[in-house]
């Protein structure tokens, strides 16, 4: 499965910070129950790789990705744990080389036109815009569409249930990422029904206006 196929699965990729390993599987199950099949576990906690391993093994209907992938060695560790794709907040020469050596597809982060150009030159045409909202949000994405018609973005960072629909109307946005599906209070309380409801709402977001994502026509940047 390549990054474009990952982006096509659903309109929202939840970004997860898992502190308690015991929550990994019920959290993934709660998201699946709401119709979310792709998720990203960030490498920001000591249990992140174990959480990826548990989700990959026990919730096989989920396509689990690894986020906050910053070190080249993260590719191998995450791949071995069962991650199916990787997401990085930015892109370095070392990450480009590691991605070339790995069969873990990478969604690299960019924030400026120069970074888009670097990523394209390295062969990446599906990019995470990060941090999307502080960087300029919808206006920035509209401005990037002119010079970079062959790039499809997954904006992430500062997006909410309220703003996600507007992002998803943009032709150069394939999906969005965000942490709003897992509010800290509900996660701490293990209130899985709230997380399932948020997932259901996210999975139902409309992408009909996004060329190529809900029909069989070729997608920009494919
Ligand atoms: C992150 O890096 O935490 C993700 O981009 C999610 O950002 P958000 O918490 O603003 O949705």
TrEMBL record:
Gene3D superfamilies attached to this UniProt entry: Aldolase class I
Pathway: Carbohydrate acid metabolism; 2-dehydro-3-deoxy-D-gluconate degradation; D-glyceraldehyde 3-phosphate and pyruvate from 2-dehydro-3-deoxy-D-gluconate: step 2/2
EC number: 4.1.2.14
PROSITE patterns: ALDOLASE_KDPG_KHG_1, ALDOLASE_KDPG_KHG_2
Known catalytic reactions: 2-dehydro-3-deoxy-6-phospho-D-gluconate = D-glyceraldehyde 3-phosphate + pyruvate
Lyase as UniProt keyword: yes
Pfam families the record matches: Aldolase
Gene Ontology molecular function terms on file: (R,S)-4-hydroxy-2-oxoglutarate aldolase activity; 2-dehydro-3-deoxy-phosphogluconate aldolase activity
Keywords: Carbohydrate metabolism, Lyase, Schiff base
Assembly notes: Homotrimer.
Family statement drawn from the similarity comment of this UniProt entry: Belongs to the KHG/KDPG aldolase family.
PANTHER family, sorted: 2-DEHYDRO-3-DEOXY-6-PHOSPHOGALACTONATE ALDOLASE-RELATED, 2-KETO-3-DEOXY-6-PHOSPHOGLUCONATE ALDOLASE
UniProt protein name: 2-dehydro-3-deoxy-phosphogluconate aldolase
Organism: Candidatus Competibacter phosphatis
């Amino acid at each position: 499965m390549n990054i474009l196929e990952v982006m096509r699965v659903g309109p929202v990729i939840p970004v997860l910070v898992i502190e308690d390993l015991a929550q990994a599987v019920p959290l993934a199950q709660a998201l699946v129950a709401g119709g979310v099949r792709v998720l990203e576990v960030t490498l920001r906690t000591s249990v992140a790789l174990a959480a990826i391993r548990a989700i990959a093994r026990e919730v096989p209907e989920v396509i689990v990705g690894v986020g906050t992938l910053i070190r080249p060695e993260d590719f191998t560790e995450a791949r071995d744990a069962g991650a199916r794709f990787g997401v990085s907040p930015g892109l370095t020469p070392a990450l480009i080389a590691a991605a070339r050596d790995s069969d873990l597809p990478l969604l690299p982060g960019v924030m400026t036109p120069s970074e888009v150009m670097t990523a394209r030159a390295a062969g990446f045409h599906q990019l995470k815009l990060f941090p999307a909202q502080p960087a300029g949000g919808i206006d920035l994405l509209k401005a990037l569409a002119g010079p970079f018609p062959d790039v499809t973005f997954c904006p992430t960072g500062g997006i909410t249930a309220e703003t996600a629909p507007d992002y998803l109307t943009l032709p150069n946005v394939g999906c969005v990422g965000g942490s709003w599906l897992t509010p800290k209070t509900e996660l701490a309380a293990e209130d899985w029904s709230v997380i399932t409801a948020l997932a259901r709402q996210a999975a139902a977001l409309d992408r009909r206006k996004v060329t190529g994502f809900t029909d069989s026509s070729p997608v920009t940047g494919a």
